[in-house]
Amino acid sequence: MTAQSHSLTRATNKSRAIRRTYAGVVPAEINRGTPGHIPVAIIGAGPVGLAMAGELASRGVSSVILERAHTSSDGSRAICWSKRTLEILDRLGVADRMYAAGVTWSVGRVYAGNTTTPLYSFDLAPMKAQKFPAFINLAQYHVEEYLVDQLTSQSEIDLRWQNELVALGQGAAGVTLTVQTPAGTYRLVADYVVAADGCRSAVREMLGLHFEGRTFEDHFLIADVRMRAPWEAERRFYFNAPFNEGRTALMHQQPDDLWRLDFQLGADIDREAALQEKNVSAKVEAMLGPSIDFEYEWVSLYTFQCRRMRQFVHDRVLFVGDAAHLVSPFGARGANGGIQDVDNLGWKLAEVLRGDAPRRLLESYDEERGLGADENIGHSTRATDFMTPKTPAARAFQSSVLALAVDFPFARALVNSGRLSTPCTLGDSTLITADTTTFATPGMQPGAVALDAPVHCQGEPSWLLHLLGHDFVCLVFGATVPSALPPRVRLVVVGRDFIDTHGLVAARYDGTPGTVYLIRPDQHIAARWRHPHPEQIRLAWQRGLALT
Questions:
Q1: Domain stops at, among 331, 348, 373
Q2: Residue 14 scores a pLDDT above 70
Q3: What's the pLDDT at 126?
Q4: Domain count, the chain
Q5: Do both 365 and 449 map to the same domain?
Q6: Do 43 and 319 form a contact (C-beta atoms < 8 A)?
Q7: Structure confidence at residue 10 as a pLDDT band (50, 70, 90)
């Protein structure tokens, strides 16, 4: 997504006029005059880069984060954080803070023309009795600041503000980075580099790499406004909105009376005129009505792309988040997809750096997150094509589907206002062992993310995903446990190590006695069996680490 921000005069004392500012860092390499060495250098201190450092630190891997700025991001930017993202960030210690500060929602309403009566509504609430809801809304700068607060006290993380990467070279011994600071320039040698430096990635440009895919010409206007509004915390999407010249519009609530308003403007516009306060205010006032007073916090004009790099792994340089792939903002797939990149890459990079897995394990990051990127791009492209039809046939299809959606559920499944982010299932991955027996829970097949459930552990209420942690885990149902496990595979026995209080773990995992799940460090299911032989478990573990 490419954006142009703009400040309007109709500001508020409550508005976030000043971002949090951090002191610039003068690294020891400048005074020492010789290059430093670090296992991993992370370029970019957005939510994805910060989460990457936290994930590596949780596995004992040290990293340096190089960030050319010295502030958190401007504007709310990404605001919708999915259940899976919260589960991942829970391991880093910030999800509870996000949950407490954010706006929880699960209901969406779809309008077409008529702005008072929805065509229909839908509920995104996942299976009940999980720790986190389907989504919370919280401005990106809050997430960045929570991560900084949590991570900067960790000895494995060296966060360097006002340190800009200006050159990069790969060799047999690692990657040599040239970094510029206000105090001078220095060099740093890293075993691996993780490029988390966004859609205009300097690392990607330095390596001469490019995106492939589609660029959309439509312009969209974001207005984040503070107001006391009568609406519930719901996602409201408008097709053919009369207050926006028959184009689409979107509304989301954020904390502290902040609301995200999004207006489609079309392709051929005067960008400077579109950002003038009188023109922005005309749209906002038409959407909200004359009785609601509002004040601006952030206004931005953007276009977007559904594109990706052909490969995310380039020898010792690995790309994550917007540096690797771009999608439209409809569906909340950008930041959530980037956090899933971190979840997939972090444990693999740690295994390789420890010498417990071959470097080809990193190739599976390219394979698996390539699947995720293609899935996200496919959803985003189809949503954009439906929302902004460009041909008579596409417009006729949209009109017919919207008309039928009033009365017919089958048509509602065809309405695409942005399929909201869900975790990618990795069943086709070379690391996953397919089922050899029949299970009654197809949603929990190998490659899927493990589902949470409430449990009791040592007399205290807890959650299954907490107990699974971030190791390889052998989850066993029944009194008979495998006689031997591969190295560093932790055994968790239902009924011995925790109590399945409500029977939900057994129900969700079809956990009849003798059932065994092998769960990866990123909590994706590597394999499952009924009464497996220890050799089956060992082979699936080896496959999960690219050892065979």
A1: 373
A2: no
A3: 65
A4: 2
A5: no
A6: no
A7: very low
Question: Considering the domain boundaries, does residue 146 fall inside one?
Answer: yes
**Residue numbers of the domain that contains 98:** 14-103+129-209+310-373
Cα four-point dihedral sign 475, 479, 480, 482:
positive
Segment 240-296, tens digit of pLDDT: 999 999 999 999 999 999 999 999 998 889 999 999 999 999 999 999 998 999 999
- Residue 169: its pLDDT value, please? 95
Q: Which residues pair with 41 in a beta bridge?
A: 64, 193
Query: Structure pTM?
Result: 0.92
* Sequence-separated (6 or more) residues with CB below 8 Å from residue 292: 227, 228, 229
Backbone angles phi, psi at 166, to 5 degrees: -120, -15
The answer to whether 123 touches 373, Cβ cutoff 8 Å, is no
Beta strands at 103-105 and 80-82: parallel, antiparallel or unpaired: unpaired
Same domain, 94 and 191: yes
In a domain, 242, yes or no: no
C-alpha angle 42/46/51, rounded to 5°? 65
Q: What pLDDT shows up at residue 16?
A: 46
Helices marked H in 413-498 — which ranges? 464-468
- Dihedrals φ, ψ of 66, to 5°? -105, 120
DSSP one-letter code for 481: -
Q: Would residue 191 count as lying in a domain?
A: yes
Q: What pLDDT does residue 105 have?
A: 85
Q: What is the mean pLDDT of residues 49-70?
A: 97
pLDDT at residue 8, rounded to an integer = 53
Contacts 24+ apart (CB under 8 A), 496-503: 497/457, 497/467, 498/455, 498/456, 498/457, 498/462, 498/464, 498/467, 499/455, 499/456, 499/457, 500/453, 500/455, 501/454, 501/455, 501/456, 501/461, 502/129, 502/453, 502/454
Q: What is the rounded CA–CA span in Å between residue 438 and residue 169? A: 50
* DSSP letter string, 271-322: HHHHTSHHHHHHHHHHHH-TT--EEEEEEEEEEEEEEEES-SEETTEEE-GG
Q: Is 225 helix (H, G, I), strand (E, B) or coil?
A: strand
CATH number at residue 453: 3.40.30.120
Structure-token pair, residue 146 = 């929570």
SS (H, E, C) 386-436: HHCCCCHHHHHHHHHHHHHHCCCHHHHCCCCCCCCCCCCCCCCCCCCCCCC
pLDDT in tens, 313-334: 999 999 999 999 988 777 677 8
CATH number, domain at 347? 3.50.50.60
Can you say whether residue 354 is alpha, beta or left, with left for phi > 0 and alpha for psi between -120 and 50 degrees? alpha
pLDDT digits (tens, 9 = 90+) for 340-361: 999 999 999 999 999 999 999 9
Longest Cα separation, the chain? 73
Contacts of 113 (CB under 8 A, 6+ apart): 239, 240, 241, 242
**Does 410 reside within a domain?**
no
